[in-house]
# Entry
Amino acid sequence: MGVGVSDRRDEIGNNLLRALRADDWAILQPKLDEWSAPTGTLLHEPGETVRHAYFPRGSSLISYLVILRDGRAIETALIGREGAVGGMVSQGRLPAFSRAEVQLGGPFFRIDLHDLEDAKSRSMTLRHLFARYADCLMAQVFQSVACNAAHSIEQRTAKWLLAAVERTGAPDMALTQEQLAATLGVGRSYLNRILGDLKERGVIEARRARMGVRDIEKLRGLACECNSAVSRHFDDLLKGVYPSD
# Structure
């Protein structure tokens, strides 16, 4: 990857941008806007023109959600400091297929897609980096389909919490049981029983509008293999981008 921007790691807060070579960062950085949004902010809905790419920073999270006819919104990908959403490989602004929603609010970098396309046209290494990231994101979507079909709600709940902790770097998050149930596409009463069992076993702690992981190793043992599979693919294509702390 060449010379990176490790001297500015704390300022950047996004691993995909940290992976840029110094000359690529110099191309992209002037076009990046510092932006923040609260939990629940809709970045785009299905059919809307995608106008920006967003890079979560720190503990911010974005979900891609497929909207069903009955109104349910099922998560297909969770994106944190390892990546970005919106027009990473497409040529310019195109209609969105899914909803993109801020799952955990906080800081982001945002860039107009016209500026992103201009930056990619000026640097082949920048274009290739984002293309490899798009492959990693597609792998996460593929794994999510398999996970929803093959694994129990307990496994999927543990996987989601584990992925959120890894992406944010924090064991506690502002998350309600209603939010998590909707994200997983399950009934709240069913999820409450699973969370209650995890609390009794000392794995998590759930309070009003907050959830915290108390034993990450137990959680990892309860989760399915899907998060690890995605992490391995990131490591193969973009070593060091998927969070390890």
User: Anything to note?
Assistant: The radius of gyration is 18 Å. Strands lie at 33-37, 42-44, 52-56, 61-67, 73-79, 99-104, 106-112, 172-173, 204-207, 210-213. Residues 124-150 form the longest helix (27 residues). Residues 1-7 have pLDDT under 50 and may be disordered.
